[in-house]
Structures are given as structure tokens and as C-alpha cells.
Amino acid sequence: MMRLAALVVPIVLCAGCAGLHGDRTVTSDVTGVWVGEWVSPGGQMNPATLRLEQTGSTVAGRVEQAGTFAGSLQGSIIGNRLRYQAVDGPWGADFTVTGDVMSGYGLLTRWRGTFRREK
Question: Where do the domains of the chain lie, and which CATH numbers do they carry?
């Protein structure tokens, strides 16, 4: 009986740990050009474009904001959640992707972003 318990307990514990990390499946492909805007908590709007390339769960690309800002980014997508950081700065974003639309927040500014993929 002790042997059975010694085998079952680690298996149950490992199964529980797997649930803590969530599903790591990539369900969205974000490759392409995404056009949208960032909106500040006060309502200020800034048009922006994201140019993204995805390989597996890895995402790289560039953001261009209304001719005033541009920078490279890198990140990942797990399920339908895209999260990226600047290559050379403190900015980034956390998006939920639904088909050809993604929305979420800037990690530094908390501005809300909504983007649509161009076809």
C-alpha cells in the first residue's frame, strides 16, 4: 500500500502543477500589418501601426505611432494573448486577439489599444 501511495502522490501533484501554468497552445496567428489607435485614459487618441511576424509562439516586429514614434518589439503569443516588450525601451503591450482584431493595454502607459489586421 505504501508503494502505491508513493507512486500516486507524485503523479497527482505533477498534474496539479501543470494546471498552474495554463495552456501554452498557440491559437492565434498575428503575422501581418495591424492598424489602429492608442487612447489615453483622458481620451487622447494616437493612430498607430503594428507590423508583426510570428514564428511558433515568438513574435517580433515594429510599432509606428503617427509619425512621432517608432520602435522594434519582441514578444510571444500563448493562446489568444499577445504580450510584447520594446527591444530598446520600457514600453510594451498586452493584447487579446480575436481573429483580425486585437485589443488591450500598454504596459507602461495603460493606454487602451485597438487594432485591426489589414488584408
Answer: 32-117 (2.40.128.120)
Stretches where the chain sits below pLDDT 50 are 4-21
Kindly give, in sequence order, each residue whose CB lies less than 8 Å from that of residue 55, ignoring residues fewer than 6 positions away. none
* Identity of the residue numbered 31: T
Residue 100, Cβ neighbours under 10 Å: how many?
13
Dump pLDDT digits (tens) for 3-21.
544 444 444 444 444 444 4
The pTM for the full model equals 0.77
Long-range contacts of 80-87 (CB under 8 A, 24+ apart): 80/27, 80/28, 82/28, 82/30, 84/59
